[in-house]
Amino acid sequence: MHTPKIQAFTRRTFLCRSGQLALSGTSLPLALNLAAIGEAAAFNAPGNDYKALVCVFLYGGNDYANTVVTYDDASYAQYSTIRGGGAGQTAGGIALGKAELSATLLNPTVAPIDSLGLSRQYALNPAMTGLAALFNAGHAAVQLNVGPLIKPLTRAQYNSADRVANPRPPQLFSHNDQQSVWQSSSPEGARVGWGGRVGDMALQAGQNSNATFTCMSVTGNAVFLSGNTALQYQLNTSGPIKINAATSSVYGSSAVSAAISTLIQQPSSHLLEADYNAVTARSMTAYTTINTALAETPPATVFPADSLGAQLKMVARLIKGRAILGARRQVFMVSIGGFDLHDNLIRNHGGLLGKVSDAMTAFYNATVEMGVASQVTAFTASDFGRTLTSNGDGSDHGWGSHHLVVGGAVKGQAFYGTPPPVSVGDTKDSTGNYAPADQWHVGQGRLLPSTSVDQYAATLARWFGVEDAELPGILPNTVHFGVPGYPLNMGFMI
Amino acid sequence: MAFQTPLAPATLDAGADRVSESTAPIQVASLAAGAAALLSACGGGGGSDNTVPGMANPVPVNANYRYTSASNDQDAARLLLQAQFSATGSDIAAVRSQGYANWLQQQVARPQSGSGWDWLEAQGYGDVQNTARYYDSSSQADYMVWHQLITAPDGMRKRMALALSEFFVVSASGLNFTWRSHAIAHYWDTLNTHAFGNYRTLLEAVTLNVAMGYYLNTKGNQKANGKGSQPDENYAREVMQLFSLGLVLLNPDGTAKLTDGKASDTYTASDISNLAHVFTGYDVDQSQNVDTLIPQTGGGTRKVGNTAFARLPMVLTDSKHSFIEISFLGIKIAANTPAKDALKTALDTLFQHPNTAPFFCKQMIQRLVTSNPSPAYVQRVAARFADNGNGVRGDLAAVWLAILLDDEARGPAGLSDSAFGKLREPMLRFVQWARTFGANSTSGLWKIGDLSNPGSQLGQSPLRSPSVFNFFRPGYVPPTTSLGAGAVAPEFQLVNEGSVGGYLNFMTNVLSRGLNSGDIKAGYGAELALVTDAAALVQHLNTVLCAGQLNAANQALMVTALNANAVTAASTDSVKKNRVYAAALMVLASANYLIQK
Lengths: 494, 597
Fold this sequence. Notes:
The complex is a heterodimer. By secondary structure, chain A is α/β, with parallel strands linked by helices. Chain A has helices at residues 3-17, 28-38, 73-83, 129-136, 155-159, 175-184, 194-204, 244-247, 254-263, 271-294, 307-320, 322-325, 345-369, 453-464, 471-474, and strands at residues 51-58, 68-70, 122-124, 140-147, 215-217, 232-234, 329-336, 376-382, 401-407, 414-416, 451-452. Helices cover 34% and strands 11% of the residues of chain A. In chain A, helix 4 packs across helix 13 and helix 11 (307-320) runs parallel beside helix 13 (345-369). The termini of chain A are close together. Chain B is mostly helical. In chain B, 44% of the residues lie in helices and 5% in strands. Chain B contains 26 helices and twelve strands. In chain B, helix 3 (73-83) packs across helix 23, helix 6 crosses helix 7 (139-151) and helix 21 runs antiparallel to helix 25 (573-589). Classes of the chains: A alpha/beta, B mainly alpha. Chains A and B meet through helix 3, helix 6, strand 6, helix 8 and helix 9 of A and helix 12, strand 9, helix 21, helix 24 and helix 25 of B.
């Protein structure tokens, strides 16, 4: 099944017909979409001995245009003009030179077709050689123009004063809120994220003998991994922390050590005290189990020595020790910061993306080494995309962005979703409708997502084992999707 | 637009701080007697303090507080641990004798102690020729700020500056330019200079500060170039979202203003794009620069400037400034308005917006007193922001006093409320250790570095926030909290299964071995004097570390544990010290301590 072609066709068909047709039960894309839904893998299907999702969060808002870079001559020319590129397709302003992109050119089995009907080419940032190779080998895919949406939205609807009929995601363009919306569908203050809810579902299905190790973070606190029953367990790249004073004699006194062990785990009628000690108690309880799991010989694959490499190496080691952790379904989160490049985009962005590419490539190789490549899927996420326009030396906060999905169960060497036209224009016709080329951004090339985070997440969740009926409980906005042009299953997972 | 147009210029003197500008009559009302006693104390016996400037104009104090003085050491310590970093015996005695308001007024009147910049210079960190290449390092900024937090005599000013550093965030971890330690030191000094001054003055100083200029990209921000490039929006966005208004319209009590059950955005994307033009044309001031050629290994030289630019406000170049008409938050700035006037109008507009007082004040209450202040508490403090009692808006000293003297902060109700208080930030616990037990640096170098590692250190270090969003968000809710709906616990964003142990292991070492190979060590003099009496030792630590908030059962648990190893006057020093370390560690580990009520 050539899903990439179908997805492109879906968008294009929808755009061409949406003016004339309401929902059509007989349209080819919808029929195929329904068929795909019927294939949903349940948690308890035979052979599903282990699955893991790994969220790689790029904090700060990743610049989409220099990550998945437009490459065909016509589109590149527009990109270069907007970003201040040099003559003869050379680098300039915040545009990358075209010649530098040839080594990371993506060669999909089917070329993606944009909303104007044009066949498009993309390359990854020149620093992303590892992920480009994985893409071209069929182990990675690109999800184009994905971002938070409550409902499908056109640019006219985005600008509409009727926010009840055309709701916008809350607090667009704000870092902390959009991080939260990506992770939980709600702005700052959310208590439950979709990674955690997916973990809840796995626990309900009886997948894990120890609930503590269902959702594990090797980075700071993030709402993504918090479920209702699945808790977020955090550890460092060096492993779990043993609390020395509570586990062995301290200052020459075992009595003091015992007292500390009591003090730091005791319940309290004060809610904040209780909350704090609950975390400490969980840390103490889990320490031995995790340490035993980590005693397994680590994968031989060499990981980069930087923070993201160390985080993903820890995830690989935990996956290796999954039997000791009693885990058949796990959700992990790692992160890398520094993407808020209002300045120095050219100077700093490649280095960051190189780290992402190197670490995710090493992680994929480690899953191959451990024989679990088709059971582990890593995907990127970020606060938001950025403007296509330059602010002189960088780009500003945007909305939709392009993301990568990597793993043996990914239908790789393919693009999903629809390429947005390369445009920063605001041209309207006499009736006030935006020109087709200006339809998929909301000014300065801040992409209006044509795929919602809910669709992206639902596709991953279904692979993980979540039933369709369970999706609204995990991703509340999915009730507004699964309509023509916005399938609940983007098709990038087997 | 639900907000007032900018105020009359007369009430808004951007160049003057409260202490220097206020000529209004003293308004101490029912505290007149106490104030008189204080004035005589200042004039009478304070040594070098007898000419404390500003005490002629103490911060006005609301007359209606119910709890005005400490009836015991615990109550005094409670105020001290909210208003500064530690509660030593002499501090407790001063609060008890002076009363809450007078003690606070006296702290406000204290002159600012030596600057961070001067300390860097005195340590030789401004030497461009030194082969350690101090100009390429931010470590000296860590030494500087820890030294200030631990040793400065004006503890309240430092405490408030630290709270401000978590609102107007610049992080040494996000800066990478020559002489960044000096720039950070000047930023810290700026927060201290204005900590008892005016919010509006501070806002402008922050806006034009070099470290902030680099951090949020005002430095080098330029008008549209006609080839598609637009002004950088970063500062325009964050000055509204984080430094003044917040995202949604607020009631005067800090709750969201709801229309049909829904909150309204404070500003739009267009407001940001427009405001961005105001912040164009600025760059660092190199007018006092002198370059030095530094020979490089492998040949050649590198040109390194001097430190001067790092403490000069950014300067404007008109040719790079955008003079187009600006429309934001319902006001217009006409085309070709001089850049300085446009900046004034923009910052005045933010200062006068009805959101700013409750938005700022609620977060300061959260930093100093409790994560979930009642709306009425927020409203009372915000009212003092709006008018300090003398008709001045934005008087920060009046805000601190309103926060700390409020019945909700001082009264006993909070001590028995199961949701009152906040998690003590790890950096505050560490500074409290150092000040309480008399830590000193034998070498005088105070080389305490970045303690941000959560697995082996504090997981937090001053002026080292991971982003402009501070170490934690004011709206953070711990995922598995037992708090009720709508309640938050911002500092818990630092709490996880790794960091809880990292903190304890770090403090276990620090207590007995100090830092930097023992160069920085505490003396524990007061504690060693009590060491043979475990109950007295625990009682003392209960007061100075947690204002008496250890419950009786935990005190008993600690005493029993300490008595398992007998300590007498004849015991060795090492045995005595071990008991002190053990007692302190038990307190520092207990949730009764960690949650400050």
